[in-house]
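Example 3.2
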Amino acid sequence: MSVPMLKIGAVLSTMAMVTNWMSQTLPSLVGLNGTTISRGGTSERIVSALYPSPEEGWQIYSSAQDADGKCICTVVAPAQNMCNRDPRSRQLRQLMEKVQNISQSMEVLDLRTYRDLQYVRNTESLMKVVDGKLKVASENPRSLNPKGFQELKNKVTELLPLLPVLEQYKADAKMILRLREEVRNLSLVLMAIQEEMGAYDYEELRQRVLLLETRLHSCMQKLGCGKLTGVSNPITVRASGSRFGSWMTDTMIPSSDNRVWSMDGYFKGRRVLEYRTMNDFMKGQNFVQHLLPHPWAGTGHVVYNGSLYYNKYQSNIIIKYHFRSRSVLVQRSLSGAGYNNTFPYSWGGSSDIDLMADENGLWAVYTTIPNAGNIVISRLEPQSLEVLQTWDTGFPKRSAGESFMICGTLYVTNSHLAGAKIYFAYYTNTSSYEYTDIPFHNQYSHISMMDYNPRERVLYTWNNGHQVLYNVTLFQVIKTSGD
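Structure, written as tokens:
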């Protein structure tokens, strides 16, 4: 049976990591629109991942194979800001504000009550003394001489500060009644919202969205590799750190690791921040710190299968650092590679050696003196860091703004500044190259890191202190079974 090659223009865009935080409350997922193509006189619907428009709402979704064995992924979800416009979401935010105000009032009441109770306890013995003297005086009035009367008067004077405390207790009692009424009103509003939303289980919906994400990723992997034809508008995830830096998730396929790593700066840095999820990274919370045994150079780091690969400062040594064991597993010199700003990208920053990963594995992009400063690509063995194969692209590295690998092809930008575009592509499978003209919006005008993540099929960039994502458009080549 023949296996014909079917070429289609399939747009692959995924926002799984960014939309993960939305699924924690009112879940959403990357939306999918259809692209129709024809083959052999029949019309086939191939679904492509696109960022949904604000007008789109929830629609039927599925992930399956049709009768011919072709992969079909169909998901349409609202854009992220749709959730913010949901009136129920607005009601919930207002409720949260009220709950927060009530909590603060309760906290103030608790502190004040504790303070006043301590004061009452301290004056308890004094009250017993006064009570005893009053009983004696009432039973035997003659025993209350002028001296005894003055002592009793002094004791009563000492008890006068209790009056404002008791007044405060009365005011607090009124506040408690008011808080009780507010809590009752909150309960009524929550019941109304529950009735409006019906008995739908949002936790169940969240689990369905997570399952759908997994199926979507699986379906995307079946689509295979393709040629880059477009880059989306930038999606700013966070603004943090200095002008230069790098951030990433694990590039290994497959992987269920949702951690995010951030490395600020390009010069002698050793501190790596590890966030539990993308949501935590966006909020700057729930992170741990790794202190590397050797400082790094540049921003060309990559996380692959739970380990960080980076260039050791003032050397052409590549280090493999394992996060869970917090230890260096292997380090190896990249023979002949320039370092210490000998052959950096156009922006400098000790970016001589750029490590990256794609669908085909681990790569190093660098240059050597014998190569006259032109970009060299080497495929690395992840365990030993041994060079498996090397290509000379002929493109001068100092003329490149940044570069990244997709499906064994190196894509090079012509600048790190505003107006940059993807200008050059080198295909390692054919050892050939071509000049391209793929524009993209450099929103913050200074890119110091640009890497492709094959697991999510997005570009990660560090742009002037902003952490930014780009979706990519690939021209797909898909094998399908013949009739």
